[in-house]
Design a protein that fits this description.
Blueprint lengths: L2 H11 L32 H15 L8 H4 L2 H10 L8 H10 L8 H13 L13 E2 L2 E2 H21 L14 H29 L2 H23 L4 H4 L4 H26 L4 H28 L14 H10 L1 H10 L1 E2 L2 E2 L1 H9 L3 H20 L6 H14 L3
Antiparallel strand pairs: 1-2, 3-4
Helix pairs in contact: 1-8, 1-9, 2-6, 2-17, 4-8, 6-7, 6-11, 6-17, 7-8, 7-11, 9-11, 11-12, 12-16, 12-17, 13-14, 13-16, 16-17
GO biological process, one term: isoprenoid biosynthetic process
InterPro entries: Isoprenoid_synthase_dom_sf (IPR008949), Polyprenyl_synt (IPR000092)
Pfam family, one: polyprenyl_synt
């Protein structure tokens, strides 16, 4: 399947007739044996995180929150936004995605593009291949690398929109009228496709076959990861014997591949050799894994958490908790947390917090953080490299 065909079929893979289901895994014991010493020194409080992002944006030359503004303010998407307003008052998840794009208090939506720009500047121009010397460079970053950062963000936002498609076969009365969900699904597919089409056009303008192959490979990985989510039944977390190693493989596909291959593509655009490209890939991979695990841990460590707040049963703390607990005890805990046929997340959360899953997830987050820092050691010391290190510190310290 070529890149164009992939983009055309992506909504179906992501569940055009339904939203991706949670993975329900019953893993085998595959514990983390060697986390290593942690080198971080800062916490991911909103204030600190915003400061890290703000300082990094100054280094790359402009706020990455405006990178995709040309696309997001286009006439086509403005028309879609007008249609989204009709969903106000409904329970369609596209509204939540739209609010997140406007009110991104954690400055995390633009993280992928920011990392691509920072690692581009940290690597600089190739010292061996001088064929890029005639390219436009602003603040130490080639214009084609800035375009790549925008493309990465467009793909990420498009996939967020597509993930908001509702499974109409699993609607409940509390979700609202069927026609509202159907209309929201149509808008989600249309707007996601529009963003992916713009990303496809931007990739073509880069005129680099290997970069197109890398981003197409990232999308194929993501499709495979999301397809696994869609094809996993609700009962699989009891019947399947899947551990943290498989969780890491699937999480890389669905959350890490885009950033990892975008970092590698940025090095390819600057004509860096295979070793530098691999180190950029490793940083993007482990940084994305740390960021995902940090998000997974938040519902279990926040001082104020709503009793009704749900969490993903495929999150790292839950998967690790199952491993340490054992299959039989996990099934028992699930049964004890059921009330009137519905899962009491508040009760289950307390059981998980009392086990080893949360602390082990934090250790795993720091393990991937250390791996990301190790990859950065191959880059020369610079402000950009320090900013990349600070991003790792910010997502891997929890106190």
């Amino acid at each position: 399947m070529n890149f164009r065909q992939l983009l055309l079929h992506l909504p179906r893979y992501l569940g055009a007739s339904g939203s991706p289901r949670r993975l329900w895994w019953s893993p085998s014991l595959d514990t983390i044996s060697s986390v290593g010493s942690w080198r971080g020194r800062s916490s991911k409080s909103p204030a600190h995180w915003n400061q890290v992002v703000s300082e990094a944006e100054k280094i790359v030359g402009y706020p990455t929150s405006f990178m995709s503004l040309r696309c997001l303010l286009s006439d086509e998407l403005s028309n879609i936004a007008m249609q989204v307003r009709k969903l106000v008052g409904t329970q369609h998840p596209l509204l939540t995605t739209a609010r997140g794009l406007v009110h991104d208090s954690w400055n995390s939506l633009q993280l992928r593009g920011l990392v691509v720009l920072l690692i581009s500047k940290a690597a600089g121009p190739s010292s061996v291949n001088t064929s890029c010397q005639n390219y436009d460079m602003v603040s130490g970053i080639y214009s084609c690398q800035r375009s790549l950062a925008e493309i990465t963000e467009l793909i990420h936002i498009a996939l967020l929109v597509h993930r908001g498609i509702v499974n109409l076969n699993e609607l409940q009365s509390s979700d609202g009228p069927l026609k509202d969900m159907q209309f929201g699904n149509k808008i989600a597919i249309l707007s996601g496709d529009f963003l992916l089409a713009n990303a496809c056009n931007g990739l073509a303008l880069l005129q680099n076959t290997k970069v197109v192959e890398l981003l197409a490979s990232a999308l194929m990985d993501l499709v495979q990861g999301v397809y696994h989510e869609n094809s996993t039944s609700k009962e699989s977390y009891i019947t399947d014997d899947i551990g943290i190693s498989t969780w890491k493989e699937q999480t890389f596909l669905s959350h890490g591949a885009l950033l990892a291959r975008s970092c590698q593509a940025a090095m390819e655009l600057a004509k860096h050799d295979a070793e530098v490209q691999n180190m950029a890939f490793q940083y993007g991979k482990h940084m994305a894994m740390s960021h995902k695990i940090n998000s997974d841990v938040q519902p279990f460590i926040k001082e104020k958490t709503s009793d009704s707040m749900t969490f993903n049963l495929n999150s790292a703390p839950v998967v690790l908790h199952q491993e340490f607990l054992g299959r039989d005890l996990w099934i028992k805990q699930i049964g004890e947390a059921q009330e009137k046929g519905r899962l009491d997340y508040a009760k289950l959360r307390e059981r998980i917090k009392a086990g080893k899953g949360v602390t082990s997830a934090i250790d795993l987050c720091r393990y991937h953080g250390n791996k990301a820092l190790e990859a950065l050691e191959s880059f020369p010391p610079s402000e950009a490299r320090s900013a990349l290190e600070n991003i790792v510190f910010a997502v891997t310290r929890f106190s």
